[in-house]
Fold:
Amino acid sequence: MEFRPIKQIHFLICVFALLMTMSCSKTYLQFKTMQSGDSRYSNLKVIAINNVFLVDSRNTKLHDRLGQWSVKKTESKTAGLEKLVRKSLAANLARFSDYEIIDLNDFNTFYGEDLRILRPITGEKVGNIDFMLDIYIGYDAQEQEGEYQEVMKFTQKTTAKSGKKWITTEDSSHEKVVTVPYNSSKADLMFYTEVIKLKDGSSKVLKNFNGILSHGQSPGVPMETMINELGVVISLRILKNISKYSTITKRLISTGSDGKIVKLLEEARIEEAKSALESTISKRNEKKAADLYNLGICYEALGESRIAIQLYDDALAIDRNNEEIIKAIGELE
Structure:
């Protein structure tokens, strides 16, 4: 059999690279956790979307002809914006919380004009609704198209062989001013939100906040994308201040634990991994930071954040410079 050392070396290099890739790969456990808002509002269960107003809408088109600018107002792309906001807000509130969501616009179909004039004034009482939302929106979009000039160099050379060398026989390189077209757009969606508590015939503004969402894209901005993001932002701002809300947490699994335990975590078999880790830790005289950290992940995934942070603290006492443990503690505190 013919021996080919080069091919064998190449094969070994490939195997080594594969093993290194496998050993360096990181596996994360992803789970949903509940975050607490203001405890004063923990008894609020029913939220109503009241007024959603588009108070300002601008769409401007700018033309740039080599520094000669022209500005033109164009039709705004905001048809149905209020309706889209209501739907996005209802969907995201339902997604991130356990509130009962009511869109007061839906009642107009059945109860006529009476609810159309609903306002958060003293003496008002609306069924069993605990609080409601008023949202005011502004839309400002700019489209810009034009052209600019740029100096570009064009190179063209002819070469010929002279003896053992190649020499340039002709060089027709030159510079030329070229006109370059461009097209870009930007859109801003501003919002102001009031969260209004209703109780025993009276109303009170719990929270109000504002913000802005910006999108830049060429050649156009997708309105549906912006509206969905607006629904997410407003929902999270409400829930973060008022009630419990869910978030997605991602933790890096430490491979320092027993391989079977790591596999259980990779397969999201949390209860089994927790039992195995507790058994392992109880049998050892010296505790490992990796086991304590992975057990902390288990408890955090099961909603026991106080136990989780204690385990993370214990793990950090053993491994002071572990960035993943520090990160986990920082996010829970």
Q: What stands out?
A: The radius of gyration is 31 Å. Strands lie at 28-35, 46-65, 68-73, 100-103, 131-154, 157-162, 165-171, 174-199, 202-216, 245-252. The chain has three domains: 43-143+184-243, 146-179, 248-332. Residues 146-179 form one domain.
